[in-house]
Write a structure and sequence with these properties.
With 289 residues, this protein is of the alpha+beta class. The chain has 9 helices and 4 strands, in the order E-E-E-H-E-H-H-H-H-H-H-H-H. 64% of the residues lie in helices and 12% in strands. A 4-stranded mixed β-sheet has the order 1-2-4-3, covered by helices on one side.
């Protein structure tokens, strides 16, 4: 399912931000971006994400930004000056200078210029703030998904209801369909009786087979049962996306069989409409856990 959650907390002079984004995926695909000083807690963060989020292409970004000038202490003065003098000498030979070229930002990205804090430098209150911020972001993420779930449920059930209504419409075509089939059988029988030699036993077998082949009573009954079971599953079970997918497959089988047996233009048209509604259900089920 798609989802979004974000939370921020202050821990001393640092602002910690946790942001979660997810897109549809059959499995949980986690991409975690975490500051170096928090690597010690990466396993705990991942376990918490796996516990709460079951499916989706999940991107999690954790940021830690200093709110004061303490960040300056992370600069390795000796390394910065060494890089600066070296680059300044090279640029002067080229007729320029380090100051004119504005190389300070480039130097800050060079190895050993910025010293990152280690996990041992992170105070306990900052760990607690990180944990609380992660939980708040997950709560917001869950609320986002729950709201989306309500919309999905209404949309999916609307399509299931449409299939049930179309199934009822099939019944209005049944008298004409049966009359057409009866007339076809009578015409075939009259033609056959004009032939002196025919196998009566074989004829009875073929007649029974013909009647069974075009009887759609079982397909209508099973399709109605599948629609009812689908609605019950939506109302009573959590994390039922896979189960709903299986039920939708069974609905598709009955619709296809109904179409192959119909032999009636009106019912064939209804079957096409049913398939269209079922495809919309399957598309939305990709968003359901």
């Amino acid at each position: 399912m798609t989802g979004y959650g974000k939370a921020e907390q202050l821990a001393g002079q640092k602002k910690i931000t946790v942001e979660l984004r997810s897109l549809n995926s059959k499995t949980l695909d986690l991409n975690l971006k975490i500051p170096t000083e928090y690597r010690e807690k990466e396993s705990a963060v991942r376990n918490e994400l796996f516990r709460v989020v079951q499916r989706g292409k999940l991107e999690v970004q954790i940021l830690s930004v200093s709110q004061d000038a303490a960040l300056l202490s992370a600069i390795n003065d000796a390394a910065f000056l060494a890089y600066y003098r070296r680059l300044d000498g090279l640029l002067k030979q080229a007729g320029s200078s380090a100051a004119e070229a504005g190389v300070a930002q480039a130097i800050l990205r060079m190895p050993d210029v910025l010293t990152e804090p280690s996990a041992s430098d992170v105070p306990e209150e900052e760990w607690a703030a990180l944990s609380g911020c992660l939980q708040q972001a997950l709560d917001a993420f869950g609320r986002f998904r729950a709201q989306e779930g309500i919309v999905l449920e209404c949309d999916i059930l609307m399509h299931v209801t449409a299939i049930s209504a179309l199934l009822e419409e099939v019944k209005t075509h049944e008298p004409q369909r049966l009359e057409t089939l009866r007339q076809r059988m009578v015409n075939s029988l009259e033609t056959l009786l004009q032939t002196a030699n025919y196998d009566k036993n074989r004829f009875e077998q073929e007649l029974i087979y013909y009647i069974e082949k075009f009887d759609i009573t079982e397909e209508k009954t099973r399709l109605k049962q599948h629609c009812d079971y689908f609605c019950q599953t939506v109302a009573t079970e959590e994390a039922s996306g896979r189960k709903l997918g299986f039920i939708a497959q069974e609905m598709g089988r009955e619709i296809n069989t109904l179409g192959s047996k119909a032999n009636h233009a009106g019912i064939q048209k209804i079957v096409v409409q049913m398939k269209d509604e079922l495809e919309k259900i399957k598309e939305q089920l990709l968003n359901v856990l």
